[in-house]
Amino acid sequence: MNMHQILRLSSILRSAISIQLRRNIGFSAVVFNKAKELDPVQKLFVDKIREYTTKSKQAGGPVDAGPEFQKDMNESLARLQRAYGEGDLTKFPEFKFEEPNFEETPK
């Protein structure tokens, strides 16, 4: 009888330790990744993204886009304008929803 209780207690203890170790290892991995320096390939990738962001802000649009890009963009906008009607297609649409009237009307 005592052996059965010891085995059950050891199973519970083993489960609790296993959960605690998984939590600690998961947390440690996050902290370790933040603390260590980036992989050289990751660092190069992040640097290129930052460089593109600054160039994009300076250019006010796509980087290194030539006149053919602007021509294609204008043609596409004209085609969409003909297909879908009026409005500025370069901006996100503004939606205006009316509040529904939930008052009961007499019958």
Automatic annotation (TrEMBL):
Keyword check for Ion transport: yes
Supply one GO molecular-function term: proton transmembrane transporter activity
A GO cellular component annotated for this chain's UniProt record is: mitochondrial inner membrane
- Classify the source by domain of life: Eukaryota
Q: What is its main location?
A: mitochondrion
Alphabetically ordered keywords of this record: CF(0), Hydrogen ion transport, Ion transport, Membrane, Mitochondrion, Mitochondrion inner membrane, Transport
Q: Does the keyword Membrane apply?
A: yes
Q: Name one GO biological process term.
A: proton motive force-driven ATP synthesis
**Family statement:** Belongs to the eukaryotic ATPase subunit F6 family.
What protein is this chain from? Answer: ATP synthase-coupling factor 6, mitochondrial
